[in-house]
Specification:
By secondary structure, this protein is of the alpha+beta class. The chain has a domain of 83 residues. It is 36% helix and 22% strand. It contains seven helices and nine strands, in the order E-H-E-E-E-E-E-E-H-E-E-H-H-H-H-H. Strand 8 and strand 9 form a beta hairpin.
């Protein structure tokens, strides 16, 4: 899209414990963050910049906002639990793009598309509704009926919005 990313998120097959061991061995400071129970470790490099590094995972149980996770080494399984196709791509260290759900094509066409069933994705985490609309606005796109209709038609849409607001 011709934009410079504001932050980079990293994914790894290393568990949080393994990452902590590696960073401690190299005397790299880690920021205490709430994300560790979901597999995220935040090292601070050169006392200048924080990087979020998250262990590949699957969501075992979700309640509409939080998930119980299980770590995996399967990149496809991690991509499959994500909310949007453009958020399910991985860039390998060699520059290869791993794109299981055509997120690159969606990005090129400025489409925001849920991975799999939109209702399921939203019920896993209601904040995904806001994320969808934020990204649509950022891309200056018109709302697409394929993705918006499930949001509007959700039987408990009003309850979902209230959970997001709370």
């Amino acid at each position: 899209m011709g934009l410079t990313p504001k932050d980079l998120d990293f994914a790894t097959t290393a568990t949080p414990e393994k990452m902590k061991q590696m960073f401690e061995k190299e005397n790299i400071r880690m920021i205490n963050a709430k994300g560790e129970k979901h597999g995220t470790i935040t090292p601070r490099i050169n006392d200048k910049e924080n990087f979020e590094i998250t262990t590949l995972r699957v969501d075992v149980v979700t309640d509409g906002r939080h998930a119980e996770v299980q770590y995996t080494t399967d990149w496809f399984l991690d991509a499959n639990r994500r909310d949007l196709t453009i958020n399910s791509m991985f860039l390998g260290l060699d520059g290869s793009v791993y794109d299981y759900f055509y997120g690159y094509e969606d990005l090129q066409n400025r489409r925001i598309v849920f991975v799999g069933d939109p209702v399921t994705r939203i019920q896993e985490d209601y904040l995904r509704i806001l994320r969808y609309f934020r990204l649509m606005t950022a891309m200056k796109r018109e709302l697409q009926h394929n993705s918006v209709r499930p949001i509007v038609n959700m039987r408990r849409f009003n309850e979902s919005v209230m959970k997001v607001i709370q």
